[in-house]
Design a protein that fits this description.
Blueprint: H1 2-35, H2 38-47, E1 70-75, E2 81-85, E3 97-104, E4 107-108, E5 121-124
Antiparallel strand pairs: 1-2, 2-3, 3-4, 3-5
Length: 145
């Protein structure tokens, strides 16, 4: 009986950890969808032009569900990529967004002033950029840096 009780206690501790792991694994699909927009946004910045294409016109947006866990992919006028999550069965994630922002130098790219410059990096999962999915579900590479 003692062994059964110990196994029950271990299961009660391990199960929530396992569920969190599963959600973080599923989140990788959402981040992969964000990554598909990186190349078009970077190419538009590097090719120059007087202004950016505007919100929703960067060439990588998806208005309907693109996968089991991605409800939509959108862009803003400066090329910020926004993915809305779905299908997690968790209100902390479903309908919430994660963002990926192009950087020129150390600042967020600005379509009005940075056309013709190279995108030097990306900032993922920053609350300041509009990410609403809790950081505990995001991988270490996507926690606002």
């Amino acid at each position: 009986m003692v062994v059964v009780a110990i196994i029950g206690i271990l299961a009660a501790v391990a199960y929530p950890i396992y569920l969190n792991y599963v959600k973080r694994t599923r989140m990788s699909e959402v981040l992969l969808a964000l990554s598909n927009c990186r190349t078009p946004v970077a190419e538009v910045y590097q090719s120059g032009g007087s202004t950016g294409p505007g919100a929703g016109n960067w060439g990588c947006e998806v208005t309907g569900p693109s996968s089991r866990y991605v409800q939509s992919i959108a862009t803003d006028p400066n090329g910020k990529i926004i993915a809305m999550a779905q299908g997690f069965g968790d209100s902390a994630i479903d309908g919430k967004v994660v963002t990926l922002v192009p950087l020129v130098g150390s600042a967020a790219a600005n379509a009005a002033t940075d056309m013709g410059k190279a995108v030097t990096g990306w900032r993922c999962g920053s609350l300041a950029d509009g990410t609403t999915i809790p950081a505990s579900y995001l991988p270490a590479s996507c926690k606002g840096a």
